[in-house]
M23ase beta-sheet core domain-containing protein (Paenibacillus marchantiophytorum), 467 residues
Amino acid sequence: MKPRTRHERRSSLLYSPKYWLLLTIFCLLAASIVVFLGRQYFTLTPTVEQRAEQPAQTMAPVHRDALDFHMIDFEQGWLRYSDGVMKTEDGGAQWLEAEASLPSEAAVGHEAVDETTLGMLGMSINQQLTSLMFGSKTYPVKQTQFLTDRIGWALVGEAGALQTPLLVTTDGGQTWNGEVTSAIRAAILAEKERLVQLKKEAALYASTDSAKAAIQSEWTLLPSTSAPGDVVLVRHNKPGKVEWLGKVYNLQPFGGGYFTYLPITMQAKPGKYPIGDQTLTIQAKKFETQYLKVTAEMESMKQDTARINADQKKIDLARSKSEPEFLFSGPFVKPIEGILTTPYGYTRYVNGKYDSAHLAVDLAAKEGTPIKAANDGVVALADSLYLTGNSIYLDHGMGLFSQYAHLSELRVKTGDRVKQGDIIGLVGTTGFSTGPHLHFTFWAHNVQVNPDLFWATTPFRWVEPKN
Ligand SMILES: [Zn+2]
């Protein structure tokens, strides 16, 4: 017999019934292993979406009689039945059997929501319902709890046909939901974040009352009476822009509102100007004149326009971008306790010729005196410049910068983050300077504004001038 070819051997195997039986058993076994492992895997690690969409999975069966509930915050709460307690840690997306003791505010260490923040929003969250519509049926309400004017829960009676007796709303009770879907969960988390943002903003005002006044108004001017050389902080409750002295200022989001600084240039005419639904009053202000004598060598410095222009490019670039939030929380401090030799706004004559308006303060101090950062910020520029010598620009966010000039030494570099009071350099007399002093000013949207407004305060705490 000639040996069978490989092909012949394989064909004979294919016709064997034993082969087919074994193959079938093997396939069935393999399939059940796959199904078993798959189920294990998905049960152990459900995705967030699955959890959010299947709240009823672990919800107590509805034949249990729900007595009451309490949400401690946007995440944690409990639901008590006659025969036990369920608790949630994700706003009701998932409920699990709890220990005998109920979780409480004391246990989690905080209140459901901060009453002060709700007060600032003018929120009334005491609405208690006696009945509500869900689906096409009206249910009697056993208990209601709102955390904000949008987010609330209601425990309903006659819930036999419902997956859960605890319904949730994200629109102040206009519509109710029988499960915490991923969309509902997102709305709850967005509301939680809104309160966090509001709280952050509110903390910057002088008092709870002034925070409340600003947060509940359409437009707020801090302050509404001003003068040339000043700066005003504008808050609006919606996005938008402000047109001011021929320029457009975009309102930038921060906290619960939208903000911009409005610099009042030295050329601004006294009068009353509408800003949104408010009126900005600009009062007349008189500035003194100063006569300065310098050496012929110093006087000629200002003629090197090439170097001056090259420096100006660096400065413009540094001030062209600013962090999109207020970087400070506490008050601004004076960078040094020097002797004020030139106040802000002096019209300056150098060697008998008109030079410029001095839109900064000069504080004389001993060479080497440490200079503090006026407030928290980012070093936008720390460089040796021609006219202003060793110079620093600090970005305080939202278009506000502080400037320090004529330093003997720089102690920071561009890009550094600094805290209020950090030593950023030393007093010197570098650049166009007649002796050791600090030339200091603020820039709001590239306009030099009066430092006197900032000492021991912040724009959020600015009040109307006393006349
Ligand atoms: Zn100066």
About this structure: Residues 312 and 435 are 23 Å apart (CA to CA). Residues 40-57 have pLDDT under 50 and may be disordered. The radius of gyration is 35 Å.
